Amino acid sequence: MLLLVSPDSVAEALDCAKAAEHLDIVDVKKPDEGSLGANYPWVIREIRESVPADKPVSATVGDVPYKPGTVAQAALGAAVSGATYIKVGLYGCTTPDQAVEVMRGVVRAVKDYRPDAFVVASGYADAHRIGCVNPLALPDIARRSGSDAAMLDTAVKDGTRLFDHVPPDVCGEFVRLAHEAGLLAALAGSVTVGDLGALTRIGTDIVGVRGAVCEGGDRNTGSIQPHLVAAFRAEMDRHARDHAAAAVAAAS
Questions:
Q1: What is the C-alpha separation between 23 and 57, in angstroms, rounded?
Q2: Which of 18, 29, 30, 157 is catalytic?
Q3: Residue 18 annotated in active site
Q4: Which of 15, 53, 171, 200 has the most CB atoms lying inside 10 A of its own CB?
Q5: pLDDT confidence of 217, banded at 50, 70, 90?
Q6: C-alpha 183, offset from chain centre
Q7: Average pLDDT over residues 60-81
Q8: Mean pLDDT of 156-177
């Protein structure tokens, strides 16, 4: 399981750089513009320059409307600014066909510029609250559009979390559908250390966090702390070891 951490500024990215050995992907977003709020191109560029070269930089394109051309241009802007993982929050898409149309535009725009870029179709565990596509439709949307991964986050940051809206068994189905489609499965949404056992068991490929590694656990007013990143990674590794040991014991 890969750890994706989301700084919202160059200063926070420098704190991520201090904890670089404990994380796998540095994700640039702007939390005050939404769950997957897009940050400025120059911030993406400065963060790319601030973290070790071997750490991929991810950038959110925003909680986007159903405007395929607009979203494709925004996604290309993120890639030009230095991101190699491009995440699109399909906030304004009410049907799978709309979501596929948006993501096909993103895939073409980004991969024409950089074929090795990694495109993530992101939906919302609390889709019922905003009227967008069903969470379990995301893996097929990602597959049909040529994306590389399907992701779930939460749209409304009101203290509820991923598993409050999509329980672990349903998240497990999401992961299974993604893997059957040849995709990576990413899960986020106010994820805490207490969720790591379930996330490990269901085979999550990427776990995304911000609040869990911020001072006071607050994604908006707290700042990322290197020691919290290290502690979160340590728990991830512990769960991975325990899961592997249990699998060996069950097979013997």
A1: 11
A2: 29
A3: no
A4: 171
A5: confident
A6: 14
A7: 98
A8: 94
Identify the active-site residue in 18, 55, 67, 87: 87
Q: What percent of the chain has pLDDT over 70?
A: 100
The answer on pLDDT for 252 being more than 90 is no
pLDDT at 219: 74
Q: Taking Cα atoms as reference points, which of 70, 63, 132 lies closest to residue 102?
A: 70
Q: Which residues contact 222 (CB under 8 A, 6 or more apart)?
A: 211, 214, 215, 216
Q: Dihedrals φ, ψ of 45, to 5°?
A: -65, -45
Residue 29 is among the residues annotated as catalytic for this protein: yes
Based on its alpha-carbon atoms, the radius of gyration of the chain, rounded to whole angstroms, reads: 17
pLDDT given at position 242? 93
Q: For all residues of the chain together, what is the average pLDDT?
A: 95
pLDDT tens, position by position, 118-148: 999 999 999 999 999 999 999 999 999 999 9
Are 150 and 117 in contact, with CB atoms under 8 Å apart?
no
